[in-house]
Design goal:
8 strands; 10 helices; eight-stranded parallel barrel; alpha/beta; about 230 residues
């Protein structure tokens, strides 16, 4: 059976590429990430198609604007039926709280399931050498996580290197979604703060977002199943 802790990133700009990969992975993968590249290229239809295939969806559009604009945008996106939506924690407590409250109210009003709302902390492509903040990256990530939790969000997106600290500070029920997952031997590409699948789960991650190590593999299904096997052994 598929393990929904693995989220495969559909970083394409053509619908046919999405259909080919989802078809190739078959029942091995149930959860997919739709990001800016894909959503801006083909539109909301890709979310509707994934739902028709009985897949779960993390709609990764990283909203960041004034509170009412973000809240309104999320309420519009919620109607597509994604399971997870996200915003930038850097938008501040008021933006996060307004967004979380708007989703709860709108979902109750419409009688539909509310997606989980999580906050982006610091992108995994950023390393300490180029970080412009006064704090260490790990300290800022934990601070963002605490703010998101206080604002009523269900979790955060953070690198696997900070997952353990977030878990210690935010408890067992708080969701941690980790990109920057690279199985042993995989190319790092544009990621900086990375980890293997097993280490990420051991550090407290709930979901692992994996793109290129699966998408660019000679045999994507075999690559996905190797990651799933590593997850299941933790």
């Amino acid at each position: 059976m598929a393990d929904e802790r693995l989220i495969v990133a559909l970083d394409f700009h053509k619908f046919d590429d999405v259909k080919n990969l989802v078809g190739e992975l078959g029942d091995s993968v149930i959860f997919y990430k739709v990001g800016m590249e894909l959503f801006y290229s083909v539109g909301a239809g890709v979310v509707e198609w994934l739902k028709s295939q009985n897949k779960k969806i993390f709609l990764d559009l990283k909203l960041h604007d004034i509170p009412n604009t973000v809240a309104g945008g999320l309420c519009s996106l919620m109607k597509l039926g994604a399971d997870i939506l996200n915003v930038h924690a850097a938008g501040g407590f008021t933006m996060l709280k307004t967004a979380a409250e708007a989703l709860r109210e709108e979902s109750a009003k419409l009688g539909i399931a509310k997606p989980k709302l999580i906050a982006i902390t610091i992108l995994t492509s950023i390393n300490q050498a180029e970080w412009y903040g006064a704090q260490k990256i790990s300290e800022q990530v934990v601070q963002f996580a605490k703010i998101a939790q206080d604002a009523g969000l269900e979790g955060v997106v953070a690198s696997p290197q900070e997952a353990k600290l977030i878990r210690e500070n935010c408890g067992e029920k708080f969701l941690i979604v980790t990109p920057g997952i690279r199985p042993a031997g995989s190319a790092v590409n544009d990621q900086s703060r990375i980890s293997t699948p097993a280490a990420a789960i051991q550090n407290g991650a709930n979901y692992l977002v994996v793109g290129r190590p699966i998408r660019a593999a000679d045999n994507p299904k075999f690559a996905a199943e190797k990651i799933l096997a590593e997850i299941s052994e933790v």
